[in-house]
Design brief:
mainly alpha, 362 residues
Length: 362
Amino acid sequence: MKNNRKHFQTLDALRFFAFFKVFLFHIPIYGFPALSFIKEGGGTAVTFFFALSGFLITYIILEEKKATGTFHIQAFYIRRVLRIWPLYFIMVSFAFITPVVLNVLSMTSSADGYEPNWLLSVSFLENYKMIATNSFPNVSPLGVMWSVCVEEHFYILWALSLYFIPARGLPWLIACSIILANISRYVFYLHDWAFLDLLTNIDYFAYGAIPAWLLIDRKEQASGFFSSLPAVLKITTLIAGIGVIIIIPNINFEWMVLIEPTVLGLIYLVLLALIVFEEELFHIPQKNVFSRLGVYTYGFYLTHTIVINFFVKIFDKKSMAFESTAIAVLFIAACLLGTTIAGIVTYYCIEKPFLKLKKRFN
């Protein structure tokens, strides 16, 4: 069967921007107010990845069901395995080998966090260990893999749900997911548990699924609505949405953790809808440097904490309270360049050979 799926080029650039915020969040530099303000809330960027996955996975499934009248769930899962598992398991192996190598080289390793359990790590259950211990694994890059675990759990649940639920039932699934997420977060909040599981994050995926449903099932109505809006309003909305995403992690009050997800989810919904239905206005072409870098985002995400920790040792400081702006910029540039090289190498050496196999399961 010919693959008629549309490639949304602008989303590649958005992936890179989201990664870059996560990257800045993990940069251990303090003492620069502007940088601290921008890099606050790395988890915000991760939740955008969730919304993006919700959009893309829902679009893929609905497009296939509309074109063929069915959904080949086995092929879907195989494609997801080929996309996620190879690099994931390489990074898990790296994490468990690292302490052994450091010990042989008589180098110190981090004492912060818990000793990881290999069975939980390879089973995509690292996030539940983090919730149970209210801590994080003491070796990179396991600390950022909680989001990959959540993504894997989403693929299983969402694909099964859409396999049995017709397209007209998707709005009910989305509504139930949003309600369930808010209830789950309230329960977790009462127990002081971190929001690191699927239930407390499933509404992000659901908000992302809405533009996909509109694109497949309500395309004419949605296109007509967005085309009727003035361009200045759409541009202003996009800019305001990005501004709120940057500002909201810096707002602190007691109930903010329960309010923030809904605000962000709605913003993600609007931003994705604008980009999908107003491609000419908000188009970032594939040749753009950010779109090109976006292709390597998965590798960037899984390797960036390793690279940052490496340069922390090179600069011989654990917490970079630099007085010199030049040295701070040099450290960030070195980490970004190292991450870029690591992400590109892992893409071509590990990811791409498996990605080529995905074509067999379209």
